[in-house]
Each structure stands twice: as C-alpha cells, then as structure tokens.
Amino acid sequence: MIPADTIVAIATAIVPQQGSIGIVRLSGQNALKIAKTLFYSPGKQIWESHRILYGYIRHPQTQQVIDEVLLLLMLAPRSYTTEDVIEIHCHGGIIPVQQILQLCIEQGARLAQAGEFTLRAFLNGRLDLTQAESISDLVGAKSPQAAQIALSGLRGKLAHSIHRLRTTCLDILAEIEARIDFEEDLPPLNEQEIQENLTQVLHQVHQILATADRGELLRSGLKVAIVGRPNVGKSSLLNAWSRSDRAIVTDLPGTTRDVVESQLVVEGIPIQVLDTAGIRETEDTVEKIGVERSRQAAQNADLILFTIDAQTGWITEDHEIYQQVQDRPLILVINKIDLADPQLAANAHFAKIVKTSAANNQGIDALEQAILETVKSENLTASNLDLAINQRQAAALTQAKMALEQVQETMNNQLPLDFWTIDLRSAIQFLGEITGEEVTESVLDRIFSRFCIGK
Predict the structure, then answer these.
(1) Which of 61, 87, 256, 360 has the fewest CB atoms within 10 Å, i.e. the most exposed one?
(2) What is the mean pLDDT of residues 304-322?
(3) CA angle 151, 152, 154 (to 5 degrees)
(4) In this predicted structure, what is the pLDDT of residue 249?
(5) Residue 284 in contact with residue 254, Cβ under 8 Å?
(6) Torsion sign (Cα): 127, 129, 131, 136
(7) Torsion sign over Cα 13, 18, 20, 22
C-alpha cells in the first residue's frame, strides 16, 4: 500500500550555529516534481536514481537563492520507503533547513509525522515490524553492543526466527484442519509428531523470551544510585568514576542538594549513575527536598552503591538508611580507605563489598567488576547476545507461549480436534503481531510515535 501524498521532514539534528550539514528528506509520488521545481543544477547533470547533483535551492517565484546544496536522488522502488525519496543536503544551523522545509511544504508536501518514513517502509513491504523497531533501537543505542544487537535485528535475525516458528504452527494447523475436513480420505493424525513439533517450538520460544531482560538492559542501561550519609565521598566517587567534575566536592556535609547524573558504559552495558544528596534528618528546606529526591532515586534504581566512610565505619545512621533501601540489590562501598583501616560490623546483607579511595582514584576497577558480577548474578548479563526482544515483542511472545501450552494441555486431555485449533490460531496471531503480519493500527501508532520526525 503506497500512500498518495508526499511527506517532508528535517532528517538531521538542528543545533544553532553548530550544525555543519542539514538534510531535508522528501518521500512520495511528488517528491521528484518538488525537487525539480526548487533545485537549479548548473551544467548538464543527469537526473537519475542514486546520483548526487550539485546546485542551488531557489525560490520558485523570486528565483532568490536560498542555499548551495547537494541533491541525492533515490527513486522508487530502490529507496528506504520504496517511494521516490529525495534528500537535500544543505548547510546546517536553523535558517537554511527551515527555509527549504517551508518551500517544500508550499509546493504541496506535508510535514511528516513521527516515524512516518519508517512506517511507509513497513507498509510498503520494505521492512517488517521487528526491523522497523530495530532502526529506532539503533538510533538510540547507548553502547556499541546495543548497536550491534539493533543491527542484527535490522538484518532480520529476530524476524527469521519468529517466521520459522509461525510457519511451523501454520503447518500443524493445516494438518489438523485437513483431518477435520477430510478425515475419511487421509491417514490418521500423527499426534506424537505434533507433540514433538510443539515442544520444539515452545523450547525456541523460551530461548527467545530469555533475551528480554538482557535486551532491556542493553537498551535502557543500568540505573545505579550512589547512596549514603552526607560527606562520605559520594560526589568524589562519581567524579573519580566518570573522570569528570560533575558533582561539587567540599568538606561540608550536605553540599549535594539534588540528584547529579552521569552516563557511563562498562563492558558494553550503559550505566546511568545518580549521585544523590546525603540522606539525613535536616531542618534545611532545600536539603529536605534533595533528601526526598535521593530516596526516590534509590527506589527507582536497579542497583545501589551504599557508600560509607572508612574513618567512622558502620554507624547508626548508616543502618537507618540501609533499612530504607534494603529491598534493592546493594553493593557496599567503603570509601576513604587512604585515611583509615575500615572495621566493618554491619548487620546487613550486600551482594559485594568494595574498598575505594575516590580522592586517589583507587578501587574504581574493582567497583566496576563488582557491578558486572552483581548484574550476572541477577541473570541480566548482556554478553554473547545476537538478538534481544523488546517489551512489546516479549508480551506478544508470552501470549503465544501460553496459547501453545494450552494446545498441549488440550491434546493431553484428548479433546476433539476443533479445540486444538482454537489456541493454535491464537498462537499464530500473537507470533504474527511480532513481525507485523497481524497488527492493528493502534499498535502501529504506539510503535512509530516513539520515532523522531525525520525517521
């Protein structure tokens, strides 16, 4: 299905006074016509697909030159959307791209909605739904490994796996329905073979579902909160770990009044580190707000670095904070070991204990290793993945798994063949939802609304 209208959007990030190149993208049946109206090419350049032309964008009425540009032609069906696609590469910044965008709209193009270029690629059969989602994952990848997983999905690895499972289910359904319609003309149904095929399908479904948590870890990253009393070295730990001065460090307790964030990547895992305000009872109104935000950050974190001062050791205030966060995975960080030999007598449970001297950049490697080991112990390791499903895909695949298990139960209860087909059709439908073979308009809206406008 090829939409009749032509869409246009700015396909690059626009940064005032910093962008070197801007791209305006057109797609649709009038894209080439609009380009020829606005573009002037000196000399005898050939207008054919997959060529780059040099010239100028001019106002069609006044002939005023808007910008010096390159024009990239990708004509149907050899384009991202399978429609005529034109890209105008102009100078960056705000004014050139906005002027060219406006001229395209004046010539009849419509401003694209979020993700509409990729939606057209899906509707026109250029991509399936898993590949379209992989494009969004690739654009938003926070680590090289996340990008590789997204690229694997874009190349169809997940789609091929799901398609094979769905084909097997369709073959089983065809065998069963044939016996229902032509029982007297066909040999008896081989129930053992069907059971074996269903078992194999379910095994593969379980394997793919097992990638959901690890895939989410790669996409969203691990949220780590540094929590503890005031002045135990939380901000110094953040600065040493991120090799920057993101947080203010002083000898005064309560210096950090809000949550300070830093983005890191540790062995392919994106980590969002949150330096929180020291948790304590205080009459300072601003500090009270910071303490409350610290508590919220700790509750939302995947992992907490519970930091104490080696000089004071474990004290009552530490235990009070521990009671507030003990439901989260915890690593105990004993900081300032350059100033004291820590003696720990804590009635508390921690996944790991790490000793650091943030001021001297000591113990950071050990801290990263402890985090990785804790992640692995929670079965969230992101290593050796070649595909990973997202939450939408996992929900559909879970529904398919439940339907297939119901088919097995129906067979074991020796119910009539008609009952077998009910849940088998449901499984086929849910598998089709993953790749887009069975999908509703509301699902498409939800998926593509998360894309940027120019994609």
Answers:
(1) 61
(2) 85
(3) 60
(4) 43
(5) yes
(6) positive
(7) positive
